[in-house]
Amino acid sequence: MLLLASVLPVLNAAAQSAAADTPEMADALRQDGKIYVVVAVITVLLAGLLALLIALDRKVTRLEKSINNE
Length: 70
Prior knowledge:
By secondary structure, the protein is mostly helical.
């Protein structure tokens, strides 16, 4: 445990120094103006999933009511 506790901060510092030299993907997408397309696609997908879950919940509720009434 002591070895793990002493190695983790070193790995974290090494990962941060390597990432600082190269640009991140989000920065490149933001420069090209494509980040808005990515955000829009993710928003549409999440909205679709939410609508699907709401529709499924309504169907399950309707089925539960019909089973309880019988």
